[in-house]
Structures are given as C-alpha cells and as structure tokens.
Design a protein that fits this description.
The protein is α+β, with helices and mostly antiparallel strands. It has helices at residues 57-62, 119-144, and strands at residues 6-9, 17-20, 26-35, 46-51, 73-79, 90-99.
Length: 145
C-alpha cells in the first residue's frame, strides 16, 4: 500500500478501518515538428505526462520546444490545444515549418518548363518566306527573258 494514498488504523480486537483515496488521473501532451506542405516529421517528437489540471506550457518552455529553431527551416505556425492545462486524455501541439529561403531575389531562378518563346520560330518562318518569294521572283524573271 502507498502511504500517500491509503490510511490504515489497526487496533486490537476491533474492525479495521481503511480510507482509500482515488489516485489522481494523468494526462499527456505530445509535441511534433512537421513540414507545412507534406506533413513529414522534421525533428524528434516529445511527450510529457503529469496530473490533469497541470499547465503544460511550463514544461514546453522549460525544454525550449516552443517555436524551436530547426536548421534549414523557418517557423510558420503552431496548433495549440484550446485547454492550457492537461486533461484526462492526450493533447497535441504541432509546430509547422517550411524550407528556409537563403540568398536574395537576384538568386531566384525561374524553372525551365520545356516551353519556349515562339518569336524565334516566327522570324525563321518569315525569313524562309522572303527567300522563297525572292527565289520565285528571280525564277519568273529569268523565265520571261
């Protein structure tokens, strides 16, 4: 028996009285660090268990988990539970991150899509049309002479 949870009074030749206290219920919180677009885990998850009614943000801040910096990623947002204290059950905090953009706007490269500007094709076609007309004109002039 646990002396914090049970009280026993034993007397000789009498009825044993034992008062039993209910053990407090525990709750837990899990902390995840995920990518905002594809939901992959970016860092190790953490879990904390304590008595219900206890504030969990003290633990989160004590381990520096709130908006924790991750190499190569920038913090986007967090999903916190509505209740600031542990409940009978499991709570979840999810911190969302995205890839960190390094450099300046001059470093931005527009991806190649396989399509190109058709101006070159139009100019090439125009040159061939003019050459064809010139050759046809020369042909007609030599034929009429």
């Amino acid at each position: 028996m646990d002396d914090k949870l049970h009280e026993v009074d034993i007397t000789k030749d009498s009825v044993v009285e034992m008062s039993i206290k209910n053990q407090p219920i525990v709750g837990s919180i899990e902390v995840y660090f995920r990518h905002v677009n594809h939901n992959h885990e970016l860092a190790r998850a953490f879990a904390f268990t304590d008595w219900i009614g206890e504030p969990y943000m003290d633990w989160v801040n004590g381990y520096a988990l709130d908006k924790k910096p991750l190499d190569g990623y920038s913090y986007v947002k967090a999903d916190y539970p509505e209740d600031p204290k542990l409940i009978d059950g499991k709570l979840t905090i999810t911190y969302w991150y995205n890839e960190k953009i390094n450099g300046s706007w001059n470093d931005v490269v527009i991806p190649k899509t396989g399509e190109h500007d058709p101006v070159g094709s139009y100019l090439t076609g125009l040159i061939f049309a003019l050459l064809s007309a010139l050759i046809f004109g020369i042909y007609l002039k030599t034929k009429s002479n």
